[in-house]
Design goal:
46% helix; five-stranded mixed β-sheet; alpha+beta; 20% strand; 140 residues; Nonspecific Lipid-transfer Protein, Chain A
């Protein structure tokens, strides 16, 4: 798919959900556009955790995304580089949230406190987890 079309579809999907939340008419959260939004957000997590947050070497972050688009993303930091890796039983930080919350963080719609109010869970290093949530915006 052409990248410009992918970005336009993503942008349209984000705005659709903005309107749905404002009108209290949830839905369409499992659409192909929503799936691309989640996958796009996962792809930028190493940059966010490694560069933007500057998580120290040895840090492992696991993000469990639940309904309606279940995904697990584990990011490990080693030698100053963050990469997607296989899940680990004892990550430094574990964040769990539904796909809507994940996308709202990525689109800059919600802060970490708003995500927690919408059911997100944070285990492990609380300060690092909060910093990660507040740094997840990847949509300008």
């Amino acid at each position: 798919m052409d990248e410009a079309v992918g970005v336009l579809g993503f942008d349209t999907g984000v705005h659709e959900q903005d309107i749905r939340r404002a009108a209290n008419r949830p839905g369409n959260l499992d659409s192909p556009t929503a799936q691309r939004a989640v996958d796009r957000g996962i792809a930028v997590l190493p940059y966010i955790i490694g560069k933007r947050v500057g998580a120290p070497n040895g840090t492992t972050v696991q993000i469990d995304i639940t309904d309606p688009i279940p995904r697990t993303a584990t990011i490990s930091v080693s030698q100053g580089r963050a990469v997607l890796t296989d899940p680990t039983p004892q990550p430094t930080v574990r964040l769990a949230m539904d796909a809507e919350t994940f996308c709202c963080l990525g689109a800059g719609r919600w802060s970490s406190s708003e995500a927690l109010q919408h059911g997100a869970a944070l285990e492990g290093d609380q300060q690092l987890g909060t910093t990660i949530c507040n740094s997840m915006t990847y949509v300008p």
